[in-house]
Amino acid sequence: MTENLKSQSITKGVQRAPNRAMLRAVGFGDNDFTKPIVGVANGYSTITPCNMGLNDLAIEAQKSIKEAGGMPQMFGTITISDGISMGTEGMKYSLVSRDVIADSIETVCKGQSLDGVIAIGGCDKNMPGAMIAMARMNIPAIFVYGGTIKPGRLNGEDLTVVSAFEAVGQYSAGKIDEAQLTAVEKNACPGAGSCGGMFTANTMSSAFEAMGMSLPYSSTMAAEDYEKVESTRKSGEALVNAIRKQILPKDLLTRKAFENAIAVIMAVGGSTNSVLHLLAIANTIGVELTLDDFEAIRQKVPVICDLKPSGRYVTVDLHKAGGIPQVMKMLLANGLLHGDALTISGQTIAEVLADIPDTPPTNQDVIRPWENPLYKEGHLAILKGNLAYEGSVAKISGVKNPVITGPARVFESEEECLDAILAGKIVAGDVIIVRNEGPVGGPGMREMLAPTSAIIGAGLGDKVGLITDGRFSGGTYGLVVGHVAPEAAVGGNIALVKEGDSITIDAKQKLLQINVPEEELNNRRQHWQPPEPRYRRGILGKYAKLVSSSSLGAVTDLESK
User: Which segment of 210-219, 280-289, 357-366, 465-474 scores lowest on mean pLDDT?
Assistant: First the structure.
């Protein structure tokens, strides 16, 4: 069977002489036109430390693809640094960038008739963006994670970028002085790589390894370590092999693969954003997946990894302790992983994990023994009720009692909320409502790391609830509930909450509720008017018109019924 199934449409036949002429200009020779043409989607930029090392990896990928018998063609795609845009209007472009990345990779690969693609990314939206494109195109594909940042160090303690956000809250609460704040700022991010805890980037890289779309151990490697280069080269080789064998995303991104990814996310204490992204990828590939599936798996899978933001360790520590393969083998040994799911190498999950022990090393405590987990159930709870008929996502790790009933403190934007926290206007027992930050209302569903970190820094993490139709950073922890759907901008009940209303967050009962009579809510609804769009033109204007509910993954190409 020919190896260039797609690209022969631009390389074969007399009528394609002009096409070949163009390809000769970029390095093709007489013997190259029957080889598979492989896209190298390069997320390199100096916008963020997450992506600053990717070009070197892309060059290595090109070399290995060529050595394996393919013809690599590199092209660029974008990134937005969540850490830099956090707390500003720019953060509205973060989730939007996921779809821009997906669109750009699809556009190049389909427009140039490529036979396969290796995507190399770092910051949060690179991974789901690439995976959505891979799901749309269904050509052989592999993802290479640029790697995690190594921890910063200060006074004998590990730091991450979240340490700097929390230091702002500590400074505002008078717990540290400006010199300490500056010291944290200068030491939090020591070099290249994505944010170092089990935040969104490391969560999604772990999920993709669990789904067989990345090579074993690749999701927890440090960006600056040489093994990342070696893994990238092996990824290029694996992709060319997958092209020859026609191992396609639809073979890998099955229902079993999604269930495996969710189990791993729960076990490692991963980001709330993984819920949004896996729903979007499943929607694209045509796998039935709902919020209820996350809750069902959560109840079966314990959190066995003690990782930041709420735990003690960073991702490089997890890597040294055995990485995602060790976590997966423990899940497999306890009947919580589908061992027959296929991987990009052509092996099953069980075959990949065959030589991994069932129990973690005894000389570490990053990965806890199965019989002594950090939490007996997963940390991402799906809450429903009259504040979220479609559902919401609560992250309850690091919370002693995930139940609160208190008066609503209502804010129409993240900025208003942060100002109130830093001014000491939020007190124990309050339930903060931040609305009109959803996919449509934001638009773009901003992350709320600045307010949540300020709450933690002020010592209110266990004493204050926060509910939003926006998102949370993977670095967030505390009694927080995001992704509330329906959102305020489309008339969800979160739009009807008034200052002082009694609000209940109860993760034990999976409940998110406004304690106001239905008759009163109906009366408020009759007087409610949808807010004026914040953006009418440009990418945010387009996004607001196209985007679906967060309960469906906030996709922009929802198939019409």
Answer: 465-474
Span 512-526, average pLDDT: 97
SS3 313: strand
Q: Which residues of 526-557 are buried (b: 16+ CB within 10 A; e: fewer)?
A: eeeeeeeebeeeebbebbbeebbbbbbbbbbb
Record the pTM.
0.96
Q: What is each CA distance from 13 to 7, 20, 31, 534, in whole angstroms?
A: 12, 10, 14, 52
Whether 222 has a pLDDT exceeding 90, the answer reads yes
User: For 398-454, how does the pLDDT look when each residue is reduced to its tens digit (9 = 90+)?
Assistant: 778 899 999 999 999 999 999 999 999 999 999 999 999 999 999 999 998 888 888
Distance CA 45, CA 59 (A): 14
Query: In Å, how far are 260, 398, 558 from 336, measured between CA atoms?
Result: 8, 24, 31
Distance from C-alpha of 23 to C-alpha of 6, rounded to nearest angstrom: 15
CA distance 43 to 145: 10
How is 222-285 classified by DSSP, letter by letter?
BTTSHHHHHHHHHHHHHHHHHHHHT--HHHHSSHHHHHHHHHHHHHHT--THHHHHHHHHHHHH
Does position 194 have pLDDT exceeding 80, yes or no? yes
Contact 221, 210 (CB under 8 A): no
In the set 45, 205, 413, 473, the catalytic residue is 473
Tokens 């990238």 map to which residue? 232
Q: Say which residue the tokens 């997963």 belong to.
A: 378
Which residues, 6+ apart, have CB-to-CB distance to 295 below 8 Å? 381, 382, 510
Structure tokens of 227?
A: 């093994």
> What value does the mean pLDDT of the chain take?
95
Q: What pLDDT was estimated at residue 478?
A: 78
Q: Is 473 among the catalytic positions?
A: yes
Residue 5 φ then ψ, to 5°: -55, -45
Distance set, CA 294 to CA 129, 236, 449 (Å): 21, 32, 23
